[in-house]
Design goal:
The complex is a heterodimer of chains A (about 525) and B (about 350). Chain A is globular. In chain A, the strands form six sheets. A six-stranded mixed beta sheet of chain A has the order 3-2-1-4-9-10, sandwiched between helices. By secondary structure, chain A is of the alpha/beta class. The N and C termini of chain A lie close together (about 10 Å). Chain B has about 350 residues and is an alpha+beta fold. Chain B has two domains: about 200 residues, CV3147-like fold, CATH 3.40.1610.10; about 110 residues, CV3147-like (Beta Barrel), CATH 2.40.390.10. The chains are: A alpha/beta (about 525), B alpha+beta (about 350).
Chain lengths: ~525, ~350
């Protein structure tokens, strides 16, 4: 039997689960993060193995979800300097690399940069021959002070030829350098894609430390499995790919949590609400994957354009303060937060919170004291809180049809079983390790996001071509061709351009090849 | 006369997006270019058109083509100056001021970058009072000014001078050339005298865009207070407030056409609003009755933040407030309607003035 091991390294806990080949949870554990990442992963894996009574060699695949890369960027810690190569001159010179970056981050990352000739047009025609000699001169001058290079060419999502040529040059002549290529990271929108690529290059060393920790920990407990990292869109990257594209892990936390929750609820389409003490996050799973945000996303204060799960944050949680004024009752956005266990009325305090009015309305049984709030006020406050939640759910949905709601998090006990626009409220078991489960059940994906000129071809042909490209990408990443499914097809015509060009986005995903089903 | 500094660009971005009426391209990249130019060459002087001498040469500048291309193939930074000087050489005369052709969207920013670099003033105003998709959709065209000679420049250094028999032909030729140079180009066109500018331009729209942006971004005012100022100071008419229930995009012919449907909230409970768009919002129908049409401005804003939403950014579930602003009177003429009325865009309805 081949089992899968899912691990989630968070800020306070390292969680681990073991799943059977048909995705049943065999064992789970939650271990506090100790001195270092290696020992906390090792302790968690030991604990689940012991619990499951499985030998270490029963594990065939190990999947890691980690926030180490995200934290490095947010905390400005352990980032390595980057050499930046932008291909596209004479175009793009008006706005140099790192424009608009926060100074603290720019200072850590900036080392050397060059803008050279080359790049392509939106329809794939070359703009200019690639300035390889300039790149070589740049590398000769700077390679000895650098470990990581970011390469961004104009319209590389349409034609990656010039980025690939630089990768080959570096591979042949400067093999100690790690190379990040923009077309493998982001989509159309040069600055945002370049930003994501430079960030990717800046976390190369952090990622390599995380990967080594993962490998070392597993080796110490005798697990010899194929290793994968969970990424933003809810799919997996093999270890070598993750080392090249660590930035693709930055939002895997919420993604794994949503996918894990959907899996535990046996649903492919649902809205998910995670109700905490101060705020609530709402996301949506469609076809088993989180809906992606269509807007530019900031990571550590930098505009990027890679796709992240679309989340709505509401300023409403269990500790949200209830206030009454002449005209109306408000709930939140301020909260007593973790002091809820002293300050809320049901815990003997004197602050009126969302928890108190839910208890007052007999929707929840929490605490050791009856709240002193009047029936009328608690009814109005509870109704106001539900209005905020219902509006958030409705914003997240894609149509007016009622959808199932998966409610998780400490504050989810405050929600009623009926909500406007919701067909049923589901509260899954094992949710405490949903992140690790989300990592363990993840699939492998392939993706295309580029501009296609439609001249001389039918739209169907273009879409079919794009799907074939995405499928080939997924197979290269380790997916079993026979299990590939199309997750997303989107076509957006370019405004103000009569040449019939469209931006086409395709995502396909499938099971890991060699995976027993 | 006043100056435009880097600090004004955030207001201008928001105001220009509003005047873009759903289209016009994101001013972001233009704003970065202008910021770079102002940081290097100093602030831009914004003058009233009446401050111009009658005889001097005025040159409007703009970007043409797909904003999606411009955010990928970012300009070199020299194009606008090349376009302006190419036109100066053709006419054998130096420009005394730069002008904006389109106050909505990215083209609010492009002329500022070149004005900073050349040390020329920008005239407060444009030729649309909003965003429109074609070169002949200008107040200049309505008043019989020729768009040519026109310069079209790419980032590689190519430039061509177009001399066409009329303005629709200029649009056709320039659009084809734009595709050939890679989908986006910088243009300088409608060269005119100070006197012609005074007689034909839509006045004050740059200042108006900044004022609108400042108002929408003012965190000290409540949404209601901002709404009152939009109506009181800017002639806005609230058409609707509600939630987006459907965004249907038709992409059959390569145009970003679509239909937005909203169901009412608050005072509009029980009502529905439909907006037909083609890059810009063109027709608004409330409960099946036409309440606003192009060339009046139909603007969709986030109901809580009042940030304008472009047609690309519309999604189900958004809470929106829809305002209409009256268009410049230049469009309320037979030639104006023929150029930008609902029928030009293929709708079988006549222009309906805003009903208060």
């Amino acid at each position: 039997m081949k089992y899968r091991l899912g691990i989630d390294v968070g800020g306070t806990n390292t969680d681990a689960v073991i799943l059977t080949p048909d995705d049943m949870v065999v064992a789970k554990t939650k271990t506090p993060v100790t001195r270092d990442v290696v020992s906390s992963i090792r302790d968690a894996v030991r604990a689940v193995l012991k619990d499951s009574e499985l030998p270490a060699d029963a594990i065939s695949h190990a999947m890691l979800g980690t926030t180490q890369v995200t934290n490095a960027i947010i905390e400005r810690q352990r980032l390595n300097p980057v050499g930046m190569i932008r291909i596209g001159a004479p175009a793009t010179l008006a706005v140099p690399p790192l424009t608009g970056w926060p100074a603290s981050l720019k200072e850590m990352v900036q080392r050397a940069s060059i803008m050279v000739r080359g790049g392509h047009e939106f329809d794939g025609r070359p703009m200019a021959p690639l300035g390889l000699n300039d790149i070589r001169r740049f590398l000769d001058e700077n390679a000895h002070t650098l470990s990581s290079i970011a390469v961004t060419a104009v319209f590389s999502p349409v034609n990656a030829e010039h980025e690939l040529a630089v990768r080959d040059l570096i591979g042949d002549e400067y093999p100690h350098l790690t190379v990040s290529l923009s077309h493998e990271i982001g989509s159309v929108g040069l600055l945002e894609r370049e930003n994501a690529t430079v960030l990717n290059a800046a976390v190369a060393e952090v990622a390599s430390m995380a990967a080594n920790a993962f490998e070392d920990a597993l080796r110490e407990v005798g697990v010899e499995a194929a290793l994968f990292f969970a990424q933003n869109d809810g799919t997996l990257m093999a270890m070598d790919y993750a080392l090249r594209y660590p930035i693709l892990t930055v939002a895997c936390g919420p993604t794994n949590s949503m996918r894990g929750a959907a899996f535990l609820s046996r649903l492919d389409d649902a809205v998910i609400i995670d109700v905490g003490g101060t705020s609530s996050d709402i996301g949506m799973i469609r076809g088993g994957f989180p809906r992606q945000s269509s807007l530019a996303v900031e990571v550590g204060g930098v505009r990027t354009n890679f796709r992240m799960p679309d989340l709505i944050a509401l300023g409403l949680g269990g500790g949200s303060r209830v206030r009454e004024s002449e005209e109306r009752v408000t709930v939140g956005p301020d909260s007593v937060g973790y002091r809820i266990i002293e300050e809320a009325q049901v815990f003997g305090g004197d602050v009126l919170t969302f928890t108190d009015v839910a208890v007052g309305q007999k929707k929840a049984h929490i605490g050791h004291r009856n709240p002193t709030v009047s029936q009328d006020l608690s009814e109005r406050a509870y109704r106001e809180a539900l209005r905020i939640i219902e509006e958030g759910i409705d914003r997240m949905k894609t149509s007016a049809e009622p959808v199932p709601l998966i409610a998780v998090g400490g504050g989810s006990a405050l929600l009623p079983d009926r909500l406007e626009g919701v067909s049923e409220v589901i509260r899954p078991l094992h949710f405490d390790v949903a992140n690790a489960i989300g990592a363990a059940i993840a699939q492998v994906s392939g993706r295309v996001d580029r501009i296609y000129a439609m001249t001389g071809r039918s739209r169907d042909q273009v879409i079919q071509d794009a799907i074939a490209t995405a499928q080939a990408d997924a197979v290269r990443a380790g997916a079993d061709r026979n299990t590939l499914e199309i997750i997303e097809v989107e076509e957006i015509p370019l405004a103000y351009l009569p040449s019939n060009a469209s931006r086409v986005r395709i995502t396909v995903a499938g099971q890991l090849a060699g995976d027993p089903l | 006369m006043r100056t435009i500094t880097v600090a004004d660009l955030a207001d201008l971005s928001v105001g220009a997006t509003l005047l873009g009426t759903g289209g016009g391209g994101d001013p972001y990249i233009g704003s970065l270019m202008t910021e770079a130019a102002i940081s290097r060459f100093g602030p831009v002087t914004l003058i009233d058109v009446d401050e111009l001498p009658d005889e001097g040469l005025v040159i409007p500048a703009a970007m043409m083509g797909a904003p999606t291309v411009m955010v990928e193939k970012i300009p070199n930074g020299r194009e606008i100056q090349t376009a302006v000087s190419a036109l100066e050489r053709t006419l054998n005369q130096k420009a005394i001021a730069i002008m904006t052709i389109e106050a909505g969207g990215i083209n609010s920013m492009i002329p500022l970058a070149v004005a900073a670099e050349l040390g020329l003033p920008v005239i407060d105003g444009d030729s649309m009072g909003r965003a429109f998709p074609e070169l002949q959709m200008t107040s200049f065209h309505v008043h019989g000014i020729r768009a040519t000679p026109m310069a079209l420049v790419d980032e590689k250094g190519n430039h061509l001078i177009i001399d066409a028999i009329d303005n629709p032909w200029t649009e056709r030729l320039a659009r084809t050339a734009t595709v050939a140079v890679g989908g986006a180009a910088i243009i300088a066109l409608y060269p005119m005298t100070g006197r012609q500018a005074k007689m034909t331009m839509v006045r004050g729209t740059m200042g108006k865009a900044m004022e609108l942006g400042r108002l929408l971004r003012d965190t000290r005012l409540s949404v209601t207070e901002i709404g009152e100022k939009l109506s009181g100071d800017h002639g806005a008419l609230e058409l609707f407030s509600g939630k987006v229930v459907d965004v249907e995009r038709h992409s059959g012919d390569g145009f970003a056409r679509g239909t937005l449907s909203c169901s009412g909230l608050g005072a509009y409970d029980g009502s529905v609003l439909r907006i037909e768009f083609q890059n810009e919002n063109l027709i608004a129908l409330r409960d099946g009755i036409v309440v606003a049409t192009v060339p009046d401005l139909i603007c969709v804003l986030d109901r809580e933040t009042l940030m304008p939403i472009t047609t690309e950014g519309l999604t189900y579930g958004q809470r929106v407030t829809v305002y209409a602003f009256p268009c410049d009177p230049v469009w309320n003429t037979p030639k104006g309607m023929e150029t930008v009325g609902p029928r030009y865009f293929g709708y079988q309805v006549d222009y309906t003035p805003l009903q208060r």
